[in-house]
Fold:
Amino acid sequence: MLKFRRRRSLQKFVSIHASVHNHVNHERHLTSREKFKLQRDAALTEWQQLSAA
Structure:
């Protein structure tokens, strides 16, 4: 938080970080490896499509 000079910059970063983290984080310890890999690949593909638009 100290690295951000303005509160608006911090809020913008946090909102973007939260959406990315929620989209990509699949809590690996709760699923099997195969299911985790499928979910991760699907999330990365969707994220690439969203960021390209």
Notes: The chain has a mean pLDDT of 80. The longest helix spans residues 33-52. Residues 26 and 39 are 7 Å apart (CA to CA). The chain has two helices and no strands.
